[in-house]
Amino acid sequence: MAIREIRVVPDPVLRTPCDEIKEITPAVRRLVDDLLQTVDDPGRAGLSANQIGVNLRAFSYNINGKIGYILNPVIEEKSGEQYGDEGCLSVPGLWYKTRRADYARVRGIDLDGKEIVLEGHGLFGRMLQHECDHLDGHVYLDRLEKEERREAMRYMRNHH
Q: From which residue to which does any coiled coil extend (predicted)?
């Protein structure tokens, strides 16, 4: 179990779609431990496996004191709209207003291979969409308007 270093843009691992977890191995169990430990820090809402350099479909979350994880998440439903500040551990120091669905429902499995569903509105809904984006090789900056995205990329080049 370890708190892992977080990869930041432009690390190519953040741009690589993650692989489905086919088998729950000891390495996958260790990954989940590390994800849970690394997300357990004030101000961390979610953490995907590729943010700690592992190319597998898994993320952990830490919202309103509730910490958990999911493997092989798939977004099943989104509805409504929210437009609010979003940040990312892989894009340190930047916050931008980002448009998301208000509600999201995600289905995946736990370490016993049992199906789990995570769903929620507001911040929890935003986190589910944000982490699933990571697993597809996207960061939230991809969702910004062109000008803002250019400005953010310039900032990252100059500050990291």
A: none
Spatial CA neighbour of 118 closest among 90, 76, 64, 65: 76
Active-site annotation holder among 5, 131, 148, 151: 131
**Predicted pLDDT of residue 1:** 66
Give the residue carrying structure tokens 């400005």: 151
What pTM value is reported for the model? 0.95
Is 160 annotated for ligand binding? no
Q: Which fold has domain 12-158?
A: Peptide Deformylase (3.90.45)
**pLDDT grade for 160, boundaries at 50, 70 and 90:** low
Instruction: Note the pLDDT tens digit of each residue in 79-103.
Output: 999 999 999 999 999 999 999 999 9
Annotated binding residue 18: no
The gap between the terminal CA atoms of the chain, to the nearest Å, is: 28
> What are the sequence ranges of the domains in the chain?
12-158
Annotated active-site residue 131? The verdict is yes
32-42 CB burial, b ≥16 within 10 A, e <16: bebbbbbbeee
Q: Is 132 annotated as a binding residue?
A: no
pLDDT value at residue 99 = 96
